[in-house]
């Protein structure tokens, strides 16, 4: 039985049965009977209207903002336009700015969020970012937006300590940020499994891997199997239970692999193993694994591959790590997606 059917049944039992009983005794006084009937009918309408948004819009137009379906901006269709960006030269030599959202429906109100906007959006949040060096650059982009430049300089050395985790609490915004060095998919799967035993889930979880597997394992089929396991662990967080209580699942994002510029890679081993053909086969495994929301999975894609391709060779010096502009753009895409998803959950 659906929630609407249950609501209607309860309303009928609780209200109409007493109404019928009262009507039996008040049948000699028709004015009193019809007054009571009108009052009870209105009471029923108020109680069951929330279960029927279309009807409530007609009956109670002043209340329709609360009962109606999500406004156009909350539509998931807006998400498909988030990566439609382009880059153009800035006034500084050899530098590029971000031109956001080239084409979009008029009702998808995308915007480039400022430090104060992000501080308000992420206020009190626990954020986990798990992945390889690409994820570390994404964390740097987030910290650039949350912190003053002077504060960022002091912590950048710790953030980029080789193959290590990084943790920070930003008291001004009440943001707790954990970067977990997780170069392989199995590392991310372990992180997700450990979250099953915590008393509080993070509000935001960003993960991404593939380059290390491509370099050290170089087997797309094995990568696909690892992603399948990761998908199951991620899906288990969608409706988590702890001590019998349901916890709000985190917003989950997947960092896609950057476009590789093979001729610019800095070792012969990388040039041999990180080819465009292998890169494309790994990207296909991500699509086929079911981890992305477009395939029914828990992760919304932050397509570093398309963003790095748009920015091009001018945005990288080693063929695999890109300038901050790429990760800052991915961050703004995530923040706008958060606005959409957050309003959908209201």
Automatic annotation (TrEMBL):
Location(s) in or outside the cell: Membrane
GO cellular component, one term: Golgi apparatus
GO molecular function: acetyltransferase activity
GO annotation, biological process: xylan biosynthetic process
The entry's keywords: Membrane, Transmembrane, Transmembrane helix
Residue stretches spanning the membrane: 6-24, 31-52
Name used for this protein in its record: Pmr5/Cas1p GDSL/SGNH-like acyl-esterase family protein
